[in-house]
Amino acid sequence: MWNRNTESLVPAAFVAAGTNERPKFHSLSVSGLSKSYGSVKANANINISIQSGEIHAVVGQNGAGKSTFVKMLYGLQQPDQGHILLNGVVTSIGTPRDALRLGIGLIQQELVLIDELTLLENILLGSELSQFGLTSHSKQLMWAQEVQKSMGLELDWDRVTGEAPLAQKQSVEILRLLSKGVDLIIFDEPTSSLAPKQVAALLELMRSLRNQGKAVIFITHKVNEVLDVSDVISVLRDGELVSTIPNKELSAQDVANMIIGTYELSAIERTSIKFGKRALAVSHLEVRDNGGSVRVKDVSFSVCSGEVVGICGVSGNGQDEIVRATIGLMEAAKGTVSLFETDVTKLDVKDRRALGISFISPDRRREGLAIEAPIKDSAIGNHVWRLERFGWLPKKTIQTFVTNLIQNYSVKTRDETGKTSELSGGNQQKLVVGRELEQQPKLLVVAQPTRGVDLAGVAAIHDFLLASRLRDTAILLSSEDLDELFFLADRILVVFGGNIVSEFSRPFDVEAIGKAMLGVTT
Amino acid sequence: MISFQLFSTSLSFAVPLILAALGGLVQMRSGIVNIALEGQMLIGALVGLVTASWLSSWLLGSLLAVVAGVLSGLFITVLMNVFKANQIIVGLGFNILALGIIGYILKSVLGVSGTLQVDDPAPLPVLNPISSEDGFLASLLNDRNPVFWFTVLLVIALPIVLRKTPLGTHIRAVGFSYEGAESLGLRARRLQLGAGAFAGAMAALGGAELSMGQVGLFNVNMISGRGYVALAAIYFGAMIVIPTTIACVLFAFFEALQIRLQLNNIPASIVSTLPYVMVVLGLFSSRLFSTIRRKNVISRT
Amino acid sequence: MMPKSEFISGFFRAIVPIVVALLLGSVVILFSGDNPLNVYFLLLRESAGGWNQIQSTLTSSTVLLFTATATAIAFRAGIFSLAAEGSLIAGGFAAAVVGASLTLSSPFIAIPIVLLASMIAGLVAAAIPAALRAWLGVDEVVSTLLFTFIIAGVVTWLVQTRFQAPGQANSATSYVADVATLPRDILGSGIGGGFLLGLLCVGTYGIWVKRSSSGFAVRMLGTAPRYAKAIGVRAPIYIFSVMAMTGVVAGLGGGVHLTGLVGRYVEGFSAGYGFTGLAIAILARMNPWGIIAGAIFFGAITSAGGTVQLFSDIPLDIVNVLQGLIMLTVVVDYSVLKRKRRRSRGDSTISTPGGAT
Fold it and tell me: How far apart are CA B236 and CA A373, in angstroms?
């Protein structure tokens, strides 16, 4: 891979160990690959084959099973059923170390570089070029220049990694993998945070890797990029493989359809009700993350009492931030959030809750509940401010409250005094929903209410949510489960790139929503 | 009145501090906080003095003190790295244990209580490269033992090692991100253990210099907080070698000054708090600045 | 109450380190030519062999009840505060000064005043690191540890300059007035007032943590900080409060130690009681019953060690040896040894259900 004239500079340690011992890579395939987490089937009977010199895209929504698939290829998880075959031979990949030894490399979404070192230091960590025992910066720069010429990679070699753009960090990881002599590189959602020019550069890099005979697996939900660069496309939906088709036979619409699937609008009639006054008004909201990047650009919408407004979109487009800014867990850099004419933008979580806003977090285990604490602690939640008497929590009051909550919301517990973690996912979520709906909130902000919940639990939670409309609760519902949105929402706002790109009313145009979500421009 | 004499004394007092502080600094760079410097210095002070006397060699005594320091450093680092023990408790517990074991052995085996004087101590030799007795250079370079010169070398070499050698970069990488370093293929455990051994060695050498080079005997309370002052110096110097060394010299200056000033009724006890006050003020202002800066970034843009 | 199985496993988790510490301690004892069984027997006899010995043990445990509780309060919120030692010293000093200058006649007024003074002093001593952590995020370990030395220096200076008892060779304040002294014997039971006060303190802590709204908020901050924030807990206020309470309780402990046992503030007032209390809080996993048991255990070692050295040639240092060993053996994660054996058998990692795709 390296040019002849760089060989003299390449330190001995950098030459891939084991490539000589490994047979030439031809193909990697999985057969009948399945994996479940509890009752949730993450991957069911997957059969995919990847050849060397091929860019194979694996696409699907969040929850489709892509990340589980990747973890099994890289030794981070073990399949429950099925096999992985390397060059037709059944192989077991127990740890990432095994994967690397077999020539499989992974560029993860969260990079594992050392932020405080420079890019060059990160690449050559463990194989530094030295002179008289001291790391020779000049030698390393010379080596870097050679790499630049042969790979067409331009990096700010001396830039501190924490401040370097993501695209350059990815290049560092790629270089490290190549130096270990990998034959198959998996890119897990590599373009989520890249600008168009950087995306183009990365896709070009993928092509050059393919042309050198490497195999590339490109995991993503970005349909346009997939059509641009891949040779073969496999579509996953709900843990299953929908199909594997060569790229040239597909159009964008085909792929979008495969990803979303067909939706039969639910036969169950949900009663439509009259809406009340405008409960939530969000106006020109801008939200930034900790690093200062804009996650929500300019969002305005409103929700009336009794109305369910759904927010949908591919994860990472700003829905999370809109939700958190509404409840007060994130600051609004610009814009306002109002509850019934009261401006709550400057208020913290406690004050907003006191005004009648409730919140169901998408991160049930770490934010929705106190997972290691007794069930009663998770049940009390924000009611502690209401139930306390002069700083005291009367035992009877608490006990009654908790027991009622558990009963009213059908939380099935083996032992009411046990830890919250002993409840099943569905029962945990019912507890959260019940806790947040008690006291008839004026506004319920909820994200992913039925993620990881069994079917019966989903039905129960949907019932609770719909029932709360009758008590004048306004609901802001963010969900990646389109079935759920189509069933519950009166209106659906589609978020893409930090903005609301379209708004839909009933009856919902599923195709149009799907396209809007994927940023497909037709 | 600042005389060269005061300056010279400050440098003498600074040597144990600098050694312990730089040892602790390296270990902190590798990602572990060493609260046990005090106990490690105590061990070095005892082992150095006693073995030097037995073997009639200051060199062997110093080396054995270093060995004792290495063993103690490995011991506590294993507890923290392999057994995931809480770093603060390990440090404090070790200090109490060291004090206890040494006191116990002193009484039970050697029959002394608290203070140990050895026959024929082999004191550290002293070099006088400058002929005249007065003047700045004389106060700087005369009357210095080999450990002083080693410390000078250390202060010069350590920054180079940390920043410019592969080893130094690896140690720092482990300190920045243990998992990151491991997944990038470094032997994180070995690096942390090595840094721990180094810290123990330096602290012990500092203690030995104190007993062999300055005081001439051993007392269970002789370290009297220098290990914690070294820790304060590391925080004050933000884990960077030169500022930490300067902090040590500054704190040693306070110590020297305080002896002088006792005549002027400025009490030792207050002066002894100065290093800690300075560190707390330093931490306060640096956090204050970074909080203000962060708020400005978010609201300005 | 905890479920029975958790209580039993917690008990074993506490016993194993102690056994390991005793075994390692016997190595030291053997090395110096003594018989460990003999030493441990003597320690046992002198700590619990008779009513006098038990009283002595309880007296030695008193101050530890306060420092352990003080530290546990902060731990509950996930704050690793080492302020107990400094606040203990400040509280003891304040009690000495106030107690020595009181001219009241009734102990029912004098004692509360003195103890109040010690609590205020403890609070003041802990306030700055508390504020630094709550609002500026300054690491509490460093700030409280270093502040301990600052307080020690300031108190020593105050004793030497302004509050020195006349005619004394060493640095010491005057003895407190009798009216301000805690009774050593409540109702003829032989148990001192200080110990009872300590039990009251631990009990109050136990009830506060379980039954109060602030106790709930603090517990949630410690075990599920994101959940706490999401339900409206205002973290900085609670952080400051628990760190301040550490100061108050440790200060009270200093006051109790002063008026109930020592009588005046002398150099060496605290033999590291703050740090021992820290170890007890961790050993007991912040559980009130565990704190009581731990305080009595460490108190037993201290008191027995003190007597044993009088009539045998076992040095008082045995106390430090055992305490240090216990601190080291307690914080070690023994499950690492089990995990090593399991990993060699090639088990896969455990997945977390309900996570992202």
Answer: 39
Quick one: angle between helices C51-76 and C235-257, nearest 10?
Answer: 160
Q: Which residues of A touch B184 (CB under 8 A)?
A: 112-114, 122, 125-126, 176
Q: CA of B251 to nearest chain C CA: how many angstroms apart? A: 14
Half-sphere exposure in the Cβ direction for A170 (13 Å, CA): 24
Best probe of the B interface among C321, C334, C337, C339, by most B CBs < 10 A, is: C321
Each of the 522 residues of chain A gets a pLDDT tens digit; together they read 233 333 333 444 344 444 456 677 788 888 888 888 766 778 888 889 999 999 999 987 766 788 888 888 888 888 888 889 988 888 888 877 788 888 898 888 777 888 889 988 888 887 788 888 888 888 888 888 887 777 767 788 888 888 887 778 888 888 888 877 788 999 988 876 666 677 888 898 899 889 888 899 999 877 778 888 999 999 888 788 888 888 887 777 777 677 666 554 444 567 778 888 999 999 999 998 877 788 899 999 999 999 999 998 876 788 999 999 999 999 999 999 999 989 999 999 999 999 999 999 999 999 999 999 999 999 999 999 999 989 999 999 999 999 999 999 989 888 888 889 888 888 999 999 999 999 899 999 999 998 878 777 888 899 999 999 989 999 999 998 887 898 899 999 999 888 999 999 988 887 788 778 777 654
Helix ranges (DSSP H) in chain C: 4-31, 36-48, 51-76, 84-100, 107-136, 140-161, 193-211, 213-223, 225-230, 235-257, 273-283, 288-311, 317-330, 335-343
Residue A125 forms contact with B (CB below 8 Å): yes
E strands within A184-271? Answer: 184-188, 215-220, 232-237, 240-246
3-state secondary structure of A47: strand
Q: Contact C317/C28 with Cβ under 8 angstroms?
A: no
- Give me the CATH code for the B2-300 domain, please: 1.10.3470
Pull the structure tokens for residue A267.
């036969």
Residue A27: strand pairing partners: A51
Cβ pairs bridging B and C (under 8 Å): 163
ipTM of this model?
0.86
Among the partner-chain residues B160, B166, B301, the one whose CB lies closest to the CB of A128 is B166
* C residues 313-342 lying closer than 8 A (beta carbon) to B: 313-328, 330-334, 336
Question: Within 13 Å, how many C-alpha atoms sit on residue A377's CB side?
Answer: 30
DSSP class of B211: I
CB A194 within 8 A of CB A167: yes
Rounded distance between C-alpha atoms, residue B105 and residue C31, angstroms: 8
Single-letter amino acid code for the residue at B53: S
Q: Write the burial class of residue C345 (CB in 10 Å: 0-12 exposed, 13-18 middle, 19+ buried).
A: exposed
Q: Taking Cα atoms as reference points, which of C113, C126, C162 lies closest to residue C251? A: C126
Q: Does C5 touch chain A (CB under 8 A)?
A: no
Please check whether residue C46 touches B, CB under 8 A. no
Assess contact for B37 and B24: CB atoms under 8 A.
yes
- C83 shares contact with chain B (CB less than 8 Å): no
What does the domain layout of chain B look like in residue ranges?
Answer: 2-300
Report CB contact under 8 Å: B177, A115. Answer: yes
How far the first Cα of chain B sits from its last, in Å, is 53
- DSSP helix/strand/coil, A283: strand
In A, residues 90-129, which contact C (CB 8 Å cutoff)?
94
Q: Which of B161, B164, B293 to mutate to test the interface with A (most CBs of A within 10 A)?
A: B164
User: Which residue type does A257 have?
Assistant: N
Tell me the whole-structure pTM to 2 decimals. Answer: 0.82
**pLDDT per residue over C183-202, tens digit each?**
777 666 667 888 999 999 99
